[in-house]
Amino acid sequence: MQLFIEETYEDMSRRAADLIAAQLIVDPTSTLGLATGSTPIGLYADLVEDFQADRISFEQVTTFNLDEYRGLSPEHDQSYRYFMQKNLFDHVDIDPEATSVPDGANPDAQAACESYEQAIGEAGGIDLQLLGLGHNGHIGFNEPCDHFPVRTHEAALTESTRQANARFFASEAEVPAAAYTMGVGTVMAARRVLMIVTGADKADILRKAFLGPVTPWVPASILQFHPDVTLICDRAAWDGAAR
Ligand code: F6R
Fold first, then answer.
1. Rounded Cα distance, 216 and 221, in Å
2. Inter-residue contact 200 to 210 (CB < 8 Å)
3. Which helix (H) or strand (E) holds 154?
4. For residues 223 and 214, what is the distance between their CA atoms, to the nearest angstrom?
5. 221 lines ligand 1 (CB under 6 A)
């Protein structure tokens, strides 16, 4: 594993954007796995800046997002498709057809998840997968449980995740109860993984994920077995974790 400890959230975002930019410069036809949530917002803003400054292009890039709430249409302002349009896709030269987010509006979970997994395979797999870290150790919406879900599947959101995500909705009752998410196996099959972690409130789970035992009760801990992981965290997250 490669570890970068950056002083601030802005430094963490810049470092992560540099790594993704380098990936696109080396291989302009890369397939990226993308994440939503609060953590990558700065990194996406930096990538937009890099695009506007002509340093990178997304013209030949393909993307697959980790997850989507079940039951939300792409137009819903809390859907992950909407998030991606607003934070990245609408501001760069990516082909809209080359961007995929699981189809949360499809009530047929099996069809939605199987076709997503198949599309990733047909694209030749993911070159670089971006991840955030949930407070309970989840990656994508792979919540703590007694096994590692392998492929894209429907996941019930835990109470703690619904509470954490309620900040984006009018009330907790409005947070969807389920999501379609890449499986842990889908993530582990990516050729490179980039995880970004910010804030003292993530220190405890950061320690469990990277310095504790590998267990499906801390889904991110499986990354200890991935051959090419880069972890970029800010000082607040790392200092608490290493204490
Ligand atoms: C988002 C996702 C989640 C988040 C995680 C951290 O697509 O899959 O696993 O990465 O919940 O979220 P933030 O960054 O909001 O703390």
1. 8
2. no
3. strand 153-156
4. 8
5. no
For 86, residues 6+ apart whose C-beta sits below 8 A from its C-beta are none
Phi then psi for 196, rounded to 5 degrees? -120, 135
Task: Determine the pLDDT at residue 61.
Answer: 98
Q: Ligand 1 in contact with 66 (CB < 6 A)? A: yes
Atom 12 in ligand 1: which residue has the minimum CA distance? 37
36 Cβ below 6 A of ligand 1:
yes
Query: What phi-psi label fits residue 140: left (phi over 0), alpha (psi between -120 and 50 degrees) or beta?
Result: left
pLDDT score of 241 more than 90: no
163: part of which helix (H) or strand (E)? helix 159-165
Cα 196 to averaged position of ligand 1 atoms, centre (Å): 10
pLDDT score of 168: 86
Sequence-distant (6+) residues with CB within 8 A of 66 are: 33, 34, 35, 36, 129, 131, 139, 140, 141, 181, 182, 187
Helix (H/G/I), strand (E/B), else coil: 143: coil
Paired tokens of 40:
């990558």
Is residue 149 within 8 Å of 183, Cβ to Cβ? Answer: yes
| Ligand 1: residue whose CA is nearest its atom 2 | 140
Give yes or no for a contact between 140 and 129, defined as CB atoms under 8 angstroms apart. no
Q: What is the DSSP letter of 225?
A: G
pLDDT, residue 203, reads 97
Per-residue buried b or exposed e for 147-185, using 16+ beta carbons within 10 Å of the residue's own CB:
ebbebbbbbebbeebbebbeeeeeeeeebbeebbbbbbe
